[in-house]
Structures are given as C-alpha cells and as structure tokens.
Amino acid sequence: MVMNETSAAERRSLIAQMVIEKGQVLVSDLVEMFNVSEVSIRRDLTLLEESRRLKRVHGGAIPIPGNFRTDSFEEKEKLHNSAKERIGQVAASLIQQGNILLLDSGTTTLQIVRNTPVSLRVSNMINMVTNSMPLAQEVLTWPSPNLTILGGIYLPDYQATVGPQTLNQLQELTADIAFLGTDGLTMEGGATTANVLMAEVDRMMADHARKTVLVTDSSKFGRKGFVPVKAVSAYHTIITDNGAPAEIVQAIRDMGVEVLLV
C-alpha cells in the first residue's frame, strides 16, 4: 500500500514507530509504502540510527533492545500541524465559562490552548490544570490566567511532569472536561502511549473528569503504542481530521462515542 505524500520528518517518525510495533522493517517495503527512492529510505534509517531510534541491519532495521522512545515533544510538534490546529479549534469551541479543565502534554492538546477564545482567557473565566510545561507557558501569556501546574518528575522528551506527586494532586481534583492526546488508537487496544508514567497521568485525568475528549490526528489511527491508557468506549468525544479511516470512525460511533471530523 502506497501512503499519501508525507514530509521526510513525518516519514521518519512513522518508520521509527513501525520498528517498535513490528519488530523489523525492510527497505524494500518502505520504498513501496512511501513511494520514495531506496537512497531516501537508507538516509532515513541512518539518521534514525544516529538518534538511537533503531538499529540498522542488512536490508532493513530492528528496534534497539529496551528502547520504546517515540518522538520528542519538539519532533511531534512539527508533524501534521494543519490537522492539529483544526482539531484544536473545534476542541476549544467545547469550552464554556466556568469550566475546570484537565489538559495533558500532547502537542494537539497545546493547540486547544492556542485556540481558546479571547473572551475566556481572562481571570476566573476558566480554570486550567496541566502537567505540560509548553502548555503552561502558553497560558501564562494570557491576562491573569487561572492555571494550576502539576508538580512531579520532569520528563524532558515530553516536557511534562509525571509520577506519584502528579497523581496525588490529580486525585484531589474533579474537572468538567479532560482533553487528552494519544500516540496510537485501535479498536482493540484503545488509546495508547509509549511511556508508562505518561499513561498513568492520562488515565487519572480521564477518571477525574465528567467528560473526556480525545484529540488526535488521523495518523494515530491503527497504531498501537506500548502502554494502554483507556478503551475507546471510555471517551465521550473523539476529535480528529477527515483522514481518519471511515470504517474505524463508524465502528467508534456505533459504540456510542461521538466522533467529530475536521
């Protein structure tokens, strides 16, 4: 199957994820899948090996034992920008005056903050709680924001806090909406991520909100990450772009979960 045209950065991101999921990738398969030259694929594998994302072998690549690292926050932020912005705009339209919001550290979640209406950015209009440093920095540019930053162990790749201290603070909260991202989404495995500690935070955010909204671009559909977060049925609403596979969208809707396509 030939994939739609992707940037080199997006292609390398997908290759790195495929190595983790499949255990091995072949140069010949990648050439056909991405419709690029063998030289381009070999260059991708060399760059991914240099960044410790995989190990090159004859004819392809395999995972580095014990390495389940996905893209860093900076790397993820460069991918699928247009779709993430549209998703963020629709998600932000769900926010109402007086809401208490939980927001995780996803790059799509950051777009919700960037698209929050100006009328809600002033003091006491909404209360935002997050473990994400980039998201917190964005909110702190607002006039008199009502923001709670969760403490804990800082993970540089995610630019977010995790661990017992983060969970203890979340345990005491109840929110109107939790906005969560994901590294992968399948009908069987639900929403998944590559990091156990990040999964714990997202899981508790979902458990402590009256409504849980998953925001994810369509590239995550069909991808199964390392650690499960929540089953598809646990989400009230999923917001994604119109590149999401129609059969999966319909299957999710058949479960009673709202799916908004942008």
Verbal overview:
The protein is α/β, with parallel strands linked by helices. It folds into two domains: 8-67, Winged helix-like DNA-binding domain superfamily/Winged helix DNA-binding domain (Arc Repressor Mutant, subunit A, Orthogonal Bundle), CATH 1.10.10; 74-261, Rossmann fold (3-Layer(aba) Sandwich). The protein has ten helices and 15 strands. The protein has helices at 8-22, 27-34, 38-50, 73-77, 81-92, 107-114, 133-139, 164-171, 196-207, 246-254; strands spanning 25-26, 55-57, 60-62, 100-103, 127-130, 147-149, 153-155, 160-162, 175-180, 184-186, 190-193, 209-215, 227-230, 237-240, 258-261. A hairpin with a 2-residue loop joins strand 2 (55-57) and strand 3 (60-62). The chain is globular and about 60 Å long.
Explain briefly what this protein structure is:
With about 260 residues, this protein is α/β, with parallel strands linked by helices. It contains ten helices and 15 strands.
